[in-house]
Amino acid sequence: MVVDLAESRSKIDAIDQQIVQLFEERMKVAADVAAYKRSTGKKVLDPAREQEKIEKLRAMAQDEYNQAGIEDLFRQIMSASRKYQYRLLGMQNFDLPFRPVEQLDVDEDTRVVCFGEPGAFSEQAMEEVFGKNITSFHKSSFRDVLQAVADGEAKYGVVPIENTSTGGITDTYDLLLDYDIAIVAEHVVKIEQALLAKPGANLEEINLVYSHPQGLLQCAPFLEEHGISMKSYSSTSAAAKKIAQEERMDQAAIASKRAAEQFGLEVLQESINFSDKNFTRFIVITNQRVFVNDADKISLCFEIKHQAGSLYHLLGNFYYNNLNLTKIESRPIENRNWEYCFFVDIEGNLNTPEVRNALESIHEFASRVRILGNVVRK
Q: Do 128 and 85 share a structural domain?
């Protein structure tokens, strides 16, 4: 049998025209449903109703392949219908967990805490975001920074969360789940790691270097090339402080030139990180449930239900709502072998119907969802 391609395409065009007409008719009915929900206060998403309908629609298909296709098709149609209803309803029927603000509340009395000693890259990020006209202080661990913010000792905190050379900073991700805080902003700093030592020291006599694990990873090829041993320390700036306090000419720190100036050290060599495109993303956290009106990225974490396709369908909600997924990171859940918590970043604002639609829908496939914040990039 010879297939006439032109004829087949013509048939598909005719069928597609009918589908478009039926879709538009369906959306008109969706507007009637939105009007009913406005008058009764019912929520837009009814997971039980949608799942029941999906199962009935699947049963109408003739084989398993078409059943899966029908499910994908109608999940996307239902998502488009909900998004349209959210547009018609505005903010009602959606409990926004954050309060929008014009800008972050900052003045000279605002207390901001950052990770590390003076001279740290976190301090640089803090000053580039808030300026120097604030009341700032330092903590020696990520946990201490988050604790200070959660307790109200500081209004804002600054910690690193990701590096372009070494990836996500897992300690920060894990700690975000332990505290009732929100991410309100992020800032990227170019990281130029330098080898710092006591004045008068030279590179040839250095046999041991201290730094934060991230600093050591970013400079590992340089250290291996020069046969220098590595020792992990609490932060790059704390390592610089240690070297300044000890009378040793054979040890050094990997830290910023800013730290060298802070502690009176000599820069033996600049830019020893293996990548010249070495950037760290810092997050600004607060214990207030707020987001800036022009925030354009949302950070979430969730655990998925133990059902086939749960992660696929959950992530599909972002696609169906035209939301760009910019980051996904998985972390093991403590005391639950082979179970994971997923951290994702999507482009969007909590005030938009696309985002509200996606956030309502992902609960169908997630056992736990938490909005970590709507982030403004500074």
A: no
> Helices marked H in 211-289 — which ranges?
213-218, 220-225, 236-245, 257-263
- Expressed as residue numbers, the domain containing 157 is 105-191+282-290
CA distance 302 to 38: 30
Sequence-ordered strand ranges (E) for the chain: 99-101, 111-115, 135-139, 156-163, 167-168, 182-190, 194-197, 208-211, 229-232, 251-255, 266-269, 279-286, 290-292, 297-304, 325-332, 340-347, 366-377
In whole angstroms, give the CA distance from residue 122 to residue 136.
Answer: 12
pLDDT digits (tens, 9 = 90+) for 252-271: 999 999 999 999 999 999 99
What is the torsional sign of CA 288, 292, 293, 296? Answer: negative
Give the mean pLDDT of 25-41: 88
Q: Is 345 helix (H, G, I), strand (E, B) or coil?
A: strand
Is 39 in the same domain as 73?
yes
Alpha helices in 226-366 (DSSP H): 236-245, 257-263, 310-320, 353-362
Structure-token pair, residue 130: 């808030």
**Quick one: 175 and 110 in the same domain?**
yes
Rg over CA atoms, the chain = 27
Tell me the per-residue pLDDT of 291-349, one tens digit each, with 9 for 90 and over: 999 999 999 999 987 777 778 878 888 987 889 999 999 999 888 888 889 999 999 99
What's the CA angle centered on 199, arms 219 and 261, to 5 degrees?
70
Question: Would you say 200 and 168 are in contact if contact means Cβ atoms under 8 Å apart?
Answer: no
Active-site residue set: 280, 282
Q: Give the mean pLDDT of the chain.
A: 92
Quick one: which of 299, 293, 292 has its CA closest to 325?
299
Would you say residue 91 has pLDDT above 60? no
Which H or E run includes 48?
helix 47-60
Pick the last residue of a domain from 94, 126, 152. 94
